[in-house]
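Q: Got a minute? One more chain.
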Amino acid sequence: MPIQLRRGRVVEVLEARPDRAVLAVEVGGERAEAIAYTTLTGPVAAGDEVVLNVTAVALGLGTGGRHFVVGRLGGEAEAQQVPGHVMKLRYTPLQFSVLAAEEEQSPHHDAVAACASLDGLPVIACSLHSMVGPAAAGVKAAAPQARVAYVMTDAAALPLALSDLVARLREAGLLDATITCGQAFGGDHEAVNLHSALLAARCVANADVAIVAQGPGNVGTRTDWGFGGVEQGEIINAAAVLGGRPVAVPRIGFADPRPRHRGLSRHAVIALGRVALLPADVVVPRMAEDRSREVMQALESAGIAAKHRIVTEDGAPGMALLQARGIEAVSMGRSFEQEPEYFLAAAAAGAHAARLHGAG
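A: Always. Here it is, folded:
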C-alpha cells in the first residue's frame, strides 16, 4: 500500500518525553492518537497543524497501528546543527543526519578505531524486544554494579523512542547506555552497523555486558526464514568474530497456541541451529522437570546442543528484581504469570552473562 498522508490538528499532548510525544489529533473529523518523534519533527503543541502518516491505521495493524507525525505545517522550526554525516532513513523523504560514534568528527572516533576486540565482553543475543528487560534485570540481580548497554538493531522498529520498555528500564537503573545501529536511531550513541555498535558498547559506553535485540514490532510470516528474530544467529556470529562471549536466549514457551512455538520455538531452531555459525552459551532456565526435558530434547534433535554450549541457570532473581522495580513483563500480550519460561530464559541469560563478566 502506498503511503497515505492526511492533514490533522493536535488537540492535546497526552505524553511527552525528550525524544517522543504521544498526541491526540483530529483527522478527518475523528479523534485519534499519533506519535511524534521530536528529534525529527521538533516540538509539537496543541493547536499545531500536522501532516500525518495514517498508513498503519488504514491497514489495521497492531504494533505501529497509530498515526505518525511527518512534520508540522507552518511556522519555522529551529534547525539543529548536527556535525555528523551518517544518514539514517537514508534515501527516503525522511532522511536525516546523525553523528555516528565511529566517524571522524566524533569525539569517540579514536576509541572505536583503536578498539580491535571485545576482549571477552558477554553479549546477550535476543530474538525479541521483550527479552531485553528480563535480561537486563538478570545481569543487575547477579552483578548490581555491572554496566549494561542495549544495542538496538534495525530488524523491527527503527526509532528507539518507540520503546516504552527501554524508557522504563533506564528510569529503573537497569540499563546504563543505549546504542542504535544500521537504520535504527535515537540511542545515546549511533553506529553504522552491528559490529561497530558492539565495539562502541565496549570502548565508548564502557559496558560490562551488552544486550542486543531488535526494537518493538517483530515481523513474522509463518515461514521458517521470514521473521525478524532470524538475526539472533547473526548477533552471535558478530559477537564471536569480535572476540566477545555470545550468550543466547532461546525462545521457550508453553502458552502459545501455535505448535511451532511450543517448547523450543521453531524460530530458535532456525536462528541457533542454522544461522549461527559460531558457538554460543545457550542458557536454559530452571523450570519444571517435564518442560526442561522437552526443551533439552528439542535442543538435541535440532543439533543446537552439538553446536553450542548448553547452560542451565536460575532466572528467578532477575524476574524478582524486574518486578521489584515496577516493570511489567509482557510479550505477545502474555504476562510472566501466563508464560514464565519465556521470561525466565532471558533473565537466566542475564545472570549467566553477569557470571562471565565476574569471571573475566
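A: Residues 340-359 form the longest helix (20 residues).
Q: Perfect, thanks.
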